[in-house]
Design goal:
- The structure holds two protein chains of two kinds.
- Chain A is of the alpha+beta class.
- Chain A is 22% helix and 27% strand.
- In chain A, the strands form twelve sheets. In chain A, strands 8, 9, 10, 11, 12, 13 and 27 form a seven-stranded mixed sheet that branches. In chain A, strands 40-41-42-39-33-43 form a six-stranded mixed sheet, sandwiched between helices.
- The longest helix of chain A is centred in the middle third of the chain and has 18 residues.
- Chain B is an alpha+beta fold.
- Chain B contains two helices and six strands, in the order βββαβββα.
- Chain B is globular, with a radius of gyration of 14 Å.
- The chains are: A alpha+beta, B alpha+beta.
- At the A-B interface, α20 of A face α1 and α2 of B.
Chain lengths: 1004, 92
């Protein structure tokens, strides 16, 4: 068992009784309860944890939270593996497995890093320079891509599907508090006391925020315990731990990811791995703290260089002293407390302060603790092979950022840097707020915008314990009032003892980059650690003209890593400001986008996957089809019987058999998926007259009529048969796929343009089952099933309907034909549809009836030249489909003007024809392009095949197609070319209707 | 996500609605036979910055068309009323 060489024997906020082991790259790592993977690695003396994105430089843990740019690892194994996880936010648990990324063959010895050549090969704008321009075609890119992707990269995602469950929760509240630190707790307390429904979301597994980085027993601890206790006692306050508010959206809606089981080896039974909360709130308090910003100098990425707040957090929270010889490099007051705590913990500490005049109140106690305080100096470079061994410091002139030539070398194994603080304004920015630069703080703070999101604590630049609490309490009160909660809030709970006024607010030195003595920029000085963007890259981009921060960001990819520049954006801004010679606020800021921290796709998807992605509609006869071996197909959201195979049959063989039998005896097909709309009211006929191109006012009760409707732009929208049930009642049918659209279209017209029409339109699709009975024996079949109903051709001719009773179920029989046979559609209440279907099958059995599916139905309608969705595809006109003969010219209808646009009347437009294959052995493929015989196969041809089938009635392959000049080319032989599998079929152009053109059969 | 105050159903998520486009346009009379008039109505849209009136169809609720005042800059939702009421109001 390895020794925890950096773990102190006492202290910290860890549970030493819970001691366990984990593995990183196969190596055993000892940990305690309360550790993160990063704190455990540091405690075990593991300093190199990753290789950098582009240059494969060794990297160590840099931060202690979500801002970590270096320590990205692959967490867990197999199907549960998650790449690019931040070691600093991974809670330790027994048996945890993690591995490093982007290193080959190993973390300590990486071939790609050997020569450092990558750095010279991959300057800013590398992709644009290398892959765009003369000689840099797509082929060159594709050749190089795999090498680049492999060399410059991140972790690999698991290939197997994720075995874990994720879920989605909707929540409503008055006040959402983002962050459970000092300000957030105070805000939640105030809002909770006021009676507001509060949700407090904290990304950590414990409340306290920055208080947890203070030594145990600090004055904040008693305050924290008291406030936490009171919050738990307020019933209207809900506390979500391990929950990150990742996005702020319109309408005060926030996305929160709760990591329910990530801290466990496996999710407990019936628990998700993560839960996605959609929180709708009236107001929100942003108390997300601030993120410390690093200073930039040569080799500032060496393992052992770390943010000062991180070093402090590891020391006080995890009892891990990240070094024994420490240099603290700062320009503000905040790092002094770390220096003295490290000294107290036995480290040798030198404190390098950029400021020449350090307040005596800071310097004197530090010196008394044995700290070597070096004022007016800067770290010029870090030294070390794989990890930090020493730093060089030199006196600095803050006005120019230049150092003197006289230098001093300090041996150290930890360099804690603090270049100031950036309030966490991501959600404020997402909500449309504009950050404002506060020169006194040297930070961007919330400016205008986002009125319902109130900033508090460090997020508002209020860093001192007392002022953070007070600002949080005030924000919580204001947020509750905004939500209309007027309850009393009492006094803010003040901490005992002396509440400091804030440590990073006293005129910090604002400096990003330490320049060399000659004024030149340091080499290998990283601004964006995650994306390996150096100071020189920013310089180069500026020189090449990328002077807007938005352009700089995209050109150099600064701040575009998965950390979204949490430790690099501010430095990039101030660097660009210096290069342009303008003030920092004049450079502007980039806008933050969700998510604040990366979230797995699985969490967003939740249970909406596989079968749950979209509900499937089943016909009321579905069970019968399933029992009788139907193969189903999805069509327009419905699961429909496709065909009913017999032994050894595929779709084609079954459909040929089924279609053939319908034409010789009879068949039943389930057409329940047709859209059905009840159109009722005194003006029902007028509505239909206005939406259909043909007339409906003249339709008599008892009659059916085929109708075609256009869109407002004049193209064909939908077709279907409508029955007049009574003077004021119509029963409209639509195609399966357009049912919703037609209903919405009618509703829109009735509620906007035609409010004077007294009509109701109601979807009755689900209320009616529909069965088509087709074939020469259809009448005998129905007569056997509904005894006593006169079905004779004279009393029920084509396009008439009549009421009947089948198996005791009231039914409506519509005599109409899609197949071209003598046919009826039987409409029955859907609850009894299966019973009726069975009765019809029983009645038809002696006549040789069979059930047929959509494939055979398609074959039958193509033989008849009837239209389907492939012809009414939204791009065809009445003329194209030879439907203009239906138009009743004496009345206007939807689309009647725009359909006459000149180009739509061009005879060159492809229009509907039928095709018959010359060679019966050669199938025609739908989607094939049409070319005249002898014409070159180039371009888009003269039209395309819309629907194709083998016709059992004709004994050859036939198709419907849209062909330029259409029926004017009757008799011509053209070629159907399928460019996908390179086949050509010769066909003869003819009428769309290829079978029983006189309609003898359907009028029988 | 927008939250829309449906006069019939109360405040609901945007996902219950379908967007219906510009509500300031007036559909030409059915008898209108001028192609250009129809062309303008069907195809031409302005893209206003700031307050705007739009149709939203509450398809997963009461199936009413609403006229929603939305600020295209801030996505703030203002007054919401039934389209049929607005039409009748204009007619009377």
């Amino acid at each position: 068992v390895s020794k925890q060489e950096n773990r102190l024997s006492q202290g910290g906020r860890i549970d030493r009784a819970a001691s366990f082991t984990m593995r990183f790259d196969g190596r055993e790592v000892r940990a305690f309860g309360g550790d993160t993977l990063a704190s455990a690695l540091l405690g075990n003396g593991v300093r190199v944890v990753a290789r950098s994105f582009k240059y494969h430089r060794p990297r160590g843990v840099f931060a202690a939270g979500v801002e970590e740019p270096n320590a990205l690892v692959r967490l867990r194994e197999g199907a549960r593996a998650e790449p690019n996880s931040r070691a600093t936010t991974i809670e330790a648990y027994p048996g945890l497995r993690a591995a490093s990324q982007n290193a080959w063959p190993s973390l300590r010895f990486d071939v790609a890093a050997l020569s450092g050549a990558l750095q010279r090969l991959l300057p800013a704008g590398f992709y644009y320079k290398t892959f765009i321009g003369p000689g840099a075609g797509i082929g060159w890119w594709m050749f190089c891509e795999s090498f680049i992707r492999r060399a410059a990269g991140r972790g690999r995602a698991a290939v197997a599907s994720d075995p874990d469950v994720y879920e989605k929760v909707n929540a409503f509240c008055d006040v959402l508090v983002v962050g459970g630190g000092r300000a957030g707790l105070a805000a939640a307390l105030a809002a909770g006391r006021a009676g507001a429904r509060v949700v407090l979301a904290e990304q950590d597994f414990a409340l306290g925020g920055s208080l947890l980085a203070c030594p145990p027993g600090s004055e904040g601890d008693a305050w924290l315990a008291a406030v936490e206790g009171e919050l738990h006692a307020i019933a209207n306050v809900r506390i979500l731990l391990r929950s990150t508010v990742f996005g702020a959206y319109d309408g005060e809606i926030y996305g929160v990811v709760e990591r329910v089981s990530d801290h466990l080896a496996a999710a407990p039974e019936h628990q998700p791995r993560q839960r996605y909360w959609i929180v709708r709130t009236k107001s929100a308090v942003l108390a997300a703290g601030a993120i410390e910003q690093p200073l930039v100098f040569t080799d500032n990425d060496l393992p052992g260089v770390m943010l000062a707040t991180a070093a402090r957090s590891y020391l006080n929270r995890h009892a891990v002293r990240c070094g024994s010889r420490v240099v603290v490099f700062t320009g503000n007051d905040a790092a002094y407390v770390l220096a003295s705590e490290l000294a107290l913990a036995g480290a040798a500490v030198a404190l390098v302060d950029l400021r020449r005049n350090v307040p005596e109140a800071l310097a004197r106690p530090a010196r008394r603790s044995g700290i070597d305080v070096v004022a007016g100096h800067a770290v010029v470079r870090a030294h070390g092979g794989q990890t930090l061994e020493a730093v060089t410091i030199a006196p600095i002139d803050l006005a120019t950022g230049r150092v003197a030539t006289a230098t001093r070398r300090i041996t150290c194994d930890l360099l804690a840097t603090s270049g100031g603080f950036a309030p966490t304004l991501h959600l404020f920015s997402q909500r449309g707020g504009k950050p404002r630069y506060d020169a006194a703080l040297g930070s961007f703070v919330a400016g205008v915008g986002a009125p319902a999101l109130l900033c508090a604590g460090s997020s508002a630049g209020r860093d001192g314990l007392g002022e953070a609490i007070r600002s949080g309490f005030a924000a919580g009160t204001a947020a509750a009032r905004r939500a209309g909660r007027e309850g009393g809030t009492g006094y803010a709970p003040e901490p005992p003892g002396e509440a400091d006024a804030g440590s990073w607010s006293r005129e910090p030195a604002v400096l990003t980059v330490v320049r060399r003595a000659d004024g030149s920029l340091p080499a290998k000085a990283f601004i964006d650690l995650e994306h390996d963007v150096t100071c020189a890259d920013v310089e180069l981009a500026h020189r090449e003209g990328y002077v807007s921060i938005e352009h700089l960001k995209r050109y150099t990819t600064i701040g575009m890593g998965s950390d979204q520049g949490k430790t690099s954006n501010v430095n990039a801004l101030s660097r660009l400001a210096a290069l342009r010679g303008v003030a920092i606020p004049d450079v502007g800021t980039t806008t933050f986008r969700p998510p604040y921290t990366p979230i797995p796709f699985g969490t967003l998807v939740g249970r909406v996957q596989g079968r749950h992605f979209r509900p499937i509609r089943r016909s009321p006869m579905h069970a019968w089809h399933a029992r009788h071996g139907a193969v189903f197909i999805e069509a327009g959201g419905w699961l429909r019987p496709w065909y009913y195979p017999r032994e050894g049959e595929g779709a084609r063989e079954a459909a040929i058999r089924e279609a053939g039998q319908v034409r010789s005896t009879a068949g039943l097909v389930d057409v329940s998926s047709l859209g059905k709309i009840a159109v009722e009211g005194p003006h029902a006929a007028q509505l239909l007259d206005r939406v259909y191109v043909n007339g409906f006012a003249s339709l008599k009760v008892g009659e059916l009529r085929y109708g075609v409707m256009l869109r407002e732009d004049g193209f064909v929208f939908d077709d279907g048969v409508t029955a007049r049930l009574a003077a004021t009642q119509f029963f409209m049918t639509t195609t399966t796929g357009n049912a919703d659209k037609v209903l919405a279209f009618l509703e829109r017209l009735l509620q906007t343009a035609w409010t004077e029409l007294e009509v109701h339109v109601t979807s009755v699709t689900d209320q009616w089952g529909a069965i088509a009975v087709a074939g020469p024996h259809a009448r005998r079949l129905l007569a056997a099933a509904c005894v006593g109903t006169d079905l004779a051709a004279a009393s029920l001719p084509n396009m008439r309907w009549r009421e009947a009773s089948i198996a005791g179920v009231p039914a409506r029989i519509h005599r109409m034909s899609y197949s071209g046979e003598l046919a009826y559609e039987v409409y029955v209440p859907s609850g009894h549809a299966e019973l009726v279907w069975e009765a019809l099958m029983a009645a038809g059995n002696p006549l040789g009836v069979l059930a047929y599916g959509t494939e055979a139905m398609g074959t039958l309608r193509i033989e008849k030249g009837h239209l389907g969705a492939a012809e009414i595809d939204g791009r065809t006109t009445l003329r194209d489909l030879a439907l203009d003969r239906l138009v009743r010219a004496t009345k206007p209808c939807v689309g009647s003007v725009l359909r006459r646009r000149p180009l739509l009347e061009d005879p060159q437009r492809p229009s509907l024809v039928g095709l018959v294959a010359l060679d019966p052995a050669r199938p025609i493929k739908a989607g094939s392009l049409l070319f005249a015989a002898g014409a070159p196969i180039a371009g888009h041809g003269e039209g395309h095949v819309t629907s194709a089938t083998y016709s059992p009635a004709l004994g050859t392959h036939i198709a419907l197609a849209l062909l330029a000049r259409g029926l004017a080319r009757r008799g011509e032989v053209v070629r159907c070319v399928d460019l996908l599998d390179d086949t050509t079929v010769e066909v003869r152009v003819g009428e769309p209707c290829a079978f029983d053109r006189e309609g003898v059969r359907q009028h029988a | 996500m927008l939250r829309i105050q449906c006069p019939v159903c109360g405040t609901r998520d945007e996902t219950e609605f379908t967007y219906g486009g510009d509500a300031t346009l007036v559909r030409p009379a059915d008898e209108e036979s001028d192609i250009d008039t129809w062309f303008e109505y069907v195809f031409l849209r302005s893209n206003p910055r700031g307050p705007h009136r739009e149709y939203w169809h509450h398809v997963e609720g009461c199936r009413q068309l609403l006229i929603v005042e939305r600020n295209t800059l801030t996505h703030e939702i203002g007054a919401v009323r039934l389209a049929r009421d607005a039409k009748r109001g204009n007619d009377s």
